[in-house]
Amino acid sequence: MSPDQPPLSRALAAFALGDEPAILDRRGRRLAIPPIVDSVAVILAGNASEAGRASRRYVHAAWPQAAGPGWTSGSDAGLPVELAALINAWMGHALDYDDALPGSGHLSVPMLAAALAAGDAREQPLSGGELVDAFLVGFEIAAKTGMALGVAHYRRGWHTTVTAGTIGTTAAAGRILGLDRDRLTAAFGIAASSVAGLQRNFGTTTKPLHSGLAARNGLAAALLALAGVSSDELAIDGERGLLDLYGLGEARPEFLRTLHEPWAIESPGTGLKLYPACYAAARPVDALLALRARHALHADDVEEIRLAVPKNGLHPMIHHEPKTGLNAKFSMEYVLAAALADGGLDLASFEDAAVSRPAVRELMSRVRLSEDRALRPEDPDALRSSPATGGRVVVELVLRDGRRVEATVAHPKGSPSAPFDRDDLEGKFMTCARFGGFAEEPARAAFDALMELEDVDDVRSVLQTLRPATAGIR
Amino acid sequence: MSPDQPPLSRALAAFALGDEPAILDRRGRRLAIPPIVDSVAVILAGNASEAGRASRRYVHAAWPQAAGPGWTSGSDAGLPVELAALINAWMGHALDYDDALPGSGHLSVPMLAAALAAGDAREQPLSGGELVDAFLVGFEIAAKTGMALGVAHYRRGWHTTVTAGTIGTTAAAGRILGLDRDRLTAAFGIAASSVAGLQRNFGTTTKPLHSGLAARNGLAAALLALAGVSSDELAIDGERGLLDLYGLGEARPEFLRTLHEPWAIESPGTGLKLYPACYAAARPVDALLALRARHALHADDVEEIRLAVPKNGLHPMIHHEPKTGLNAKFSMEYVLAAALADGGLDLASFEDAAVSRPAVRELMSRVRLSEDRALRPEDPDALRSSPATGGRVVVELVLRDGRRVEATVAHPKGSPSAPFDRDDLEGKFMTCARFGGFAEEPARAAFDALMELEDVDDVRSVLQTLRPATAGIR
């Protein structure tokens, strides 16, 4: 820390509470709408996931008398706000269908969940404009915290969705709760003492729980600071502070000194997922489906599916013989085979029964994967992209009639360079709402309202219309 | 991890759920009674602390409709069990008056708080015998986790009370909740994803909050596992697991393979505090008060107070001009001066007003501190002692009449080698109860019952008699 600079937790508080038009401008605010709408969508879908069922068992057993003002997507009754934040964010990551920011994880869902729950903790209604601003500063701080913690932090085994995410949710919740600069400074220090989450738990249902912990712990830090709990103002950048302990000697605090220049949500930008699978599958599946459509192919026409990705681009796709839908999200063989067989990839593609279909298993045996240095990311330090999202991928199909057809994709649909249009967003929103057991018409009305979020006076009034249509979802 | 050994989380689950008489023997159980009784005492005292006030503001603002079965010391109404665990353990560490295990922190309070709250989450009452057994296995696992994380973990800046503590509270809560081995194995993995707590926050009210987080997070991990949340069974000892990330290459998993041989609560044993200050002050103050009594001295008789401690034995006593009671707990000058002036050191000694008394400030200027290698701990690797608790200290008083008197202390009153007797425990219990605003007679009856804890059929029935006598404590 330079002696002429304020401690980072103080600087972050000043930024998070800022309201200068230059910071929260109209353009910045519009950037926040798609990830917010997308996050609501995946929270709705999560209701019908294994995590959704576990969360209901947990509430039933651990919180039998719980009541409070916190909105949760699957419940008519309100819950205590910290519990609502936990459950909404947990649901939103349950299907691995939420957006991803290279290097910093899945930040939008915990940011939205913490902000909504903070709004429910206040007396006055939360307006759409307030929500957008809080989301934007929280997302920015989380993204830059991820970059500041550095590559070593992620490589060593921490899950940035929750570690970096928690610092951002503190900002989002603190802004909405009306903390002053001193209290928000203290909240960052409290939050720094709750930063945890092991990559070792990837592939288990603790992974989506991490998103819930990011939302709950940031909100709790803000509420505790509001109640007068103190912390050390050097808890982010001091000796034995967050960057010191978790940055492993390679922390880059400068990322937290240069906020919104540009907004991380603009550059590198967050990628919205078209498919409920690991983001590394997005480009290969886009390329395959483009070939399938362009050449009017069926599975029977294809002798072999060849995929080439940048060096290390297959790293997260660890399952080659997936047994469950959760495994299959991390199986490149499965996503390519299922996309070719079905002409698409949706939530139903990752139900356990779908994964064991004999025709798809047969197709999987005809997938050939390779890595190719020539397809490398343009960003070798992987701060703004990764081998799974930088560079480009090539899919080549060898057809039974002897032809070979090929497609190259650098930017998958939903990424900052190929963003969803309104129809794409609406399609995903409605698919998620149906999957989660929500009634069609209120969901469509909520989507329309959320697309004009800045005109909404009371966000809660929009969300409350989202009622489960299916019995069994409380 | 050796290939012929089960994953540590599975081995810990088997140990935590064991009921072999050789493990939970009568002697082991008796060892648990003093720290349990002492922990209840400090939880009661914490009610009247700054943390107690903050906790009530937090509950009021963040949990306005909260209700549940969880007992908390200062409240007539029950709270949700996770919140009760948080608040009880937070209160118990609020005054830095709870016991300390060299190398692994302040483990008894979070263990007790998590166990009590887990009992409240069940239908059947929690018996004293069950509480003792759960406390014992939780304490043991936490203590050995602290040793397994190693010296580097603590030196780097993690607060073992919460990092190691969380693994232990998971065991204590899981045993009481009746988890089977698979569920408790999963619970350890979930808990490993919530291990955090920065020493940077020492000296702020986030430090006692860490104890609360240890209790809440361990209980939550057990409840989440009970609801079916899965985790990786190598989350403790696998690559990118707890020991790998937090042990900084120096983890010693063997400590978690050799549980209860001996019980950590027996050797090195946990030190109960006679004074509500940093444990490094215990021996110097004992020595000074012994001299004061033996020679019938008053402050006016003393020209100079000389203290010699082992190398690094002054390390935690960071405040030389304390301004608040919280500072003063970490000021060697203050504790010696106040003890000489008052003939003792109690909770009132650390109220803010007491710290600024001119007579005491004047005495502080006559304190001379030094470190002496010859007084070194017998345990140079500091796993079972520290410079603040190993070796011995020497206090020399230079009197105005020219005499010099000297006392040496190796083991302070309350330590395993000089344990509290029943009167000592009762004295501290009643002092804490009065300070916390609790009525005298029910407190004394509760003390008597807790001393015979194994005969108690329903622990809750004992604790519920503890009612605040003072208005303002809810």
From TrEMBL, chains A, B:
Residues 275-435 form the MmgE/PrpD C-terminal domain. Signal peptide: none annotated. Gene3D superfamilies: 2-methylcitrate dehydratase PrpD (1.10.4100.10). GO terms for molecular function: lyase activity. It comes from the Bacteria. InterPro entries: MmgE/PrpD_sf, MmgE/PrpD_sf_1, MmgE/PrpD_sf_2, MmgE_PrpD, MmgE_PrpD_C, MmgE_PrpD_N. Residues 34-248 form the MmgE/PrpD N-terminal domain. It holds the Pfam family MmgE_PrpD_N. Belongs to the PrpD family. PANTHER family: 2-METHYLCITRATE DEHYDRATASE, 2-METHYLCITRATE DEHYDRATASE-RELATED. This is MmgE/PrpD family protein. It comes from Microbacterium ulmi.
